Amino acid sequence: ESLVRTFTPFYFLVEPLDVLSVRGASVIMNCSAHCETPPRIEWKKDGTFLNLVSDDRRQLLPDGSLLINSVVHSKHNKPDEGYYQCVATVDSLGTIVSRTAKLTVAGK
């Protein structure tokens, strides 16, 4: 096996942008990463990984973007507002983390 590691390009094509939403709207946080080995995409909110497997409101789209169906926002419950990051991993290369995008939900 050759010891020379060729550089494999691994980078974000699209990173999420700040979003202003209203309660009940759907929001897409865009993310797409490029690598010859398809990256595994995960999302963090406020520094914590989201478990999207059992989430009926939030889903990972095929391109890596995050869809939030029907933003929830009340005086005492603001589960969707916050800071989001897209995390792309290729096991042989490592992990890259996107810029931080803020989701703000407008009040009435």
UniProtKB/TrEMBL annotation:
UniProt keyword GTP-binding, yes or no: no
GO biological process, one term: cell-cell adhesion
A Pfam family reported for this protein in Swiss-Prot or TrEMBL: Ig_2
Gene3D superfamilies from the UniProt entry: Immunoglobulins
The entry's keywords: Disulfide bond, Immunoglobulin domain, Repeat
Ranges of residues in domain Ig-like: 9-104
Domain of life: Eukaryota
Family under the similarity heading: Belongs to the immunoglobulin superfamily. DCC family.
Family annotation (PANTHER family): NEOGENIN (PTHR44170:SF14), PROTEIN SIDEKICK (PTHR44170)
Protein name per its UniProtKB record: NEO1 protein
Gene that this polypeptide is encoded by: Neo1_1
